Description:
The complex is a heterodimer of chains A (about 500) and B (about 500).
Chain A: H1 9-17, H2 23-36, E1 43-46, H3 48-63, E2 75-79, H4 106-113, E3 117-122, E4 142-143, E5 146-150, H5 156-163, E6 169-174, H6 180-186, E7 189-192, E8 212-217, H7 220-230, H8 248-253, E9 269-273, H9 283-298, E10 302-306, H10 314-329, H11 348-359, H12 362-375, H13 381-401, E11 407-411, H14 426-431, H15 437-442, E12 446-453, E13 459-466, H16 471-483
Parallel strand pairs in A: 2-3, 2-6, 9-10, 9-11
Antiparallel strand pairs in A: 1-3, 4-5, 6-8, 7-8, 7-12, 11-13, 12-13
Helix pairs in contact in A: 2-3, 5-6, 7-16, 10-12, 10-13
Chain B: E1 10-20, H1 59-71, E2 75-76, E3 79-80, E4 82-86, E5 96-100, E6 106-107, E7 110-115, E8 118-131, E9 135-142, E10 148-153, E11 160-166, H2 173-190, E12 202-211, E13 221-226, H3 229-248, E14 256-261, E15 266-272, E16 282-283, E17 290-291, H4 294-303, H5 308-319, H6 323-329, H7 333-346, H8 349-366, H9 378-389, H10 395-406, H11 416-431, H12 439-452, H13 454-461, H14 465-478, H15 485-497
Parallel strand pairs in B: 13-14
Antiparallel strand pairs in B: 1-11, 1-12, 2-6, 3-17, 4-5, 4-16, 6-8, 7-8, 8-11, 9-10, 12-13, 14-15
Amino acid sequence: MSALHDLTLAQQSQALASGQTTSVALTQHALDRIATHADLGAFLHVDAAGALAAAAASDARRAAGQTLGPLDGVPVAHKDIFVTQDQPTTAASKMLKGYQSPFDATVVAKLKAAGTVSVGKLNCDEFAMGGATENSAYGVAHNPWMRAQIAGGSSGGSAVAVSGRLVSGATGSDTGGSIRQPAALTGITGIKPTYGRCSRFGMIAFASSLDQAGPMARTAEDCALLLQTMSGFDERDATSAQQPVPDFVAALTTPRAGATADQPLTGLRVGVPKEFFGEGVSADVLAANRAALAQLESLGATLVDISLPRTELSIPVYYIIAPAEASSNLSRYDGVKFGHRAAKYGDLNDMYRKTRAEGFGAEVKRRIMIGTYVLSHGYYDAYYLQAQKLRRMIADDFQAAFQVCDVIAGPVSPTVARPIGSSTDPVQEYLADIFTLPASLAGLPGMSVPCGFGEHGLPVGLQLIGNYWQEAQLLHTAHAFQQTTDWHQRAPAALG
Amino acid sequence: MSSPLIRGYEVVIGLETHVQLSTASKIFSGASTQFGAAPNTQSCPVDLALPGTLPVMNEGAVERAIEFGLAVGAHVAPRSIFARKNYFYPDLPKGYQISQYEIPVVQGGSVSFFVDDKPFTVRLVRAHLEEDAGKSLHDDFVGFNGEKSSGIDLNRAGTPLLEIVTEPDIRSSREAAEYARALHTLVVWLGICDGNMQEGSFRCDVNVSVRRPGAPLGTRREIKNLNSFKHIVQAADYEINWQIDELEDGRAIEQATILFNPDTGETRAMRTKEDAHDYRYFPDPDLPPLVIAPEWIERVKGRMPELPRVMAERFVSGYGLPEYDATMMTQSKAFAAFFETAAQACQQPKLVSNWLMGEVSRRLNAAEQTIEQSPISATLLAAMISRIADGTISNNGAKQVFEALWSGEGAGEGEGAGADQARVNAVIDAKGLKQMSDTGELEKILDDILAANAKSVEEFRAGKEKAFNALVGQAMKATKGKANPATVNELLKKKLAG
């Protein structure tokens, strides 16, 4: 057996089932590795005692023949955007320093009920706003492939923890690409399911109409295992869907009609949007993605040229709607009930001003201001309402495309990971979200699958976008791809 | 509709009423809505706006809104939208209030009532669902260490409200109060609100403006949070005169939100248009559109009580009551039930209505009691009215019987119709109020009177009507008031004609 941290989540599950290892051993190993690589900035909080206790309980269940399922005993970690009853939650903000939630997020509770061992809370951009985890109030997350580079964001800590093989699976959240982009930049697999697939209860809100939880792991199989547990209607979230949850794990290997062993994707029509392969995409990313498309074709898929004509518009549309919702969602952080409150202030308004000025970082403040502006009297129609109209048109464009294809494929990010601290212009950062925003605005499931390496040997991801509730098809496609490629098996050499 | 002018000005009033809906739990959380609990003991993580919490619509609140919509003949929107009203205040935990803005659940409708005995109808613009805020406590809050301090009580945060908005159809403070009373009657009747004004379950914002007749609408000022009908009249009257004073002195009225001080009877500005909030309304992305299928409306309709106006129509057609009486009899469910029980027991609906509007209401109002607390039951009142109807007692005699019954005379001697009748009879006998029903005896007395008053008889026959009254008076005197005046009239006329 290879080193415990080299095992995928599915392999760890098997090793537990076969008695080759124990949850305590896996958990202790993860804790040691987290400590060794603390300088990666993946974790904001590590709960060694709690994790080891949970692991021991899992081992006891297994010994008693009462194991809770395939995830029982597997160490995982949660993005610090999910509130947890046993560990503090900060959303990587000074505003919530030391905040202790009295309840678990639904996604956390479901994974806990399935027996997973939560080792800690993962770094991210403050309130999930950013694409580099540089906006965390508690330090940046480093890309395990090259420490000087960003790990992406906002789920950067989750990406580093999985890519650095500190844990085999983690939760992330995706508002405009926050699962897919860091997964791509760190060479792991991540899926943002259809909006409404996973409950948002307990996931600290950034932009409510876009936020969606999802798993980040090394393989499509691991993502299927985690998503299986994370999904489902929740009566505490009115936007979660009363949609049956298919067997994602079984779907990985369920053959398509007419498929053969070496042509598992026979009959699959893969839409290739011309807007995803044009100017502004770096050559290394284009090359890796084109090769991935060829690989899909060799597996039996048919490539279909399609157009998503409003791809570019998704940037202004997103950067109106998301800040608008954020400006309202973040009003509750006012120093009255919980979280940070300025130590010295005059009247009530002064308390609000100082509390929020001290508690929020620059990017959060920027988005609150943009959002406040676009919702203001006299501007609402021109910005917010117009953006909502375009959002519907973007969703319509996808539906037109899905008339001629089953999944859409293209790059996740226009470039590989850039150096930490290299961005001075927030607008340039926003532009880099161009390929992840459309699926977010439409509420469609999107996935990032490792598909090669580019400049400096940094990972490149392939994005797969499916129609509503078609996660099983995405996972099946990614799984087939991963059976004949080894990009997802590569480990960052520097970490050992 | 012509309306009285005040100092040459026409008054224009519209109301916004916040009706607290009688759900057991809050509009977007499972916490209890019970009034009067210790501060912050009825606020759950959702009410406290803890990170990660989300609102979930309470269907009971929606059903109450549907009931209201049906009761006022409004359009119940098949799809309505919740919006966020953004502003910072310590008693507003999320920093926004969830309300309905562009598309409310109830659209249009009207409320009809009487002002004195004139029918009046106020059109409604809309009624929308929203959540209440918490309360800022300044003196009576006890901190964690038992010390007195300022604080926030979030027990009320998230209590469901239906905000009911009228067209500016009202032309006087009196009409405003009567509208509020009618609305109060209706929501309590429906059971969608407990109607407790002291506890803030029913609060009115009154928008007042004045104008010269025929001129465009004047600038309005909004008096916030009035929680008694008396205050509505006082506040509106003060405000009307204040606005007229301003205009007469050549000053323009500025749009403002104002507060009424019941101790001084005056209004004062809380904020003016300059510092009006920009609430940045936008659809709440946490709540899908509120979809109300026709089947849901039908289900609610099936469960609804008979509406006051429908019942009033039935009282007109079924009991022959005048419309005004019918409206009065349907001022509350209990009142209507009292009326129906009594009317059926004695088969004298108009007499029952007269007694309920007269003596019964007078005594109840004096004691600040409701019909449920009446010491005279419906069947007891009916037993007494039966004795008026069959001529046993006169109306004046009945008043004495009523007073005796009200103060409990003869009480505790059994239950049921027989016992009620026996009790009434006993009181009549004890007070000697029985009218003379034996015409033979009465005729003898009348013959004596005619004989003894030959002069009056002569005058009457000479065409002096007054003389007849004198003879009736003599008869009543001779019978110590026990003669039935109608019988006396009838017999006397016969004898004088003969």
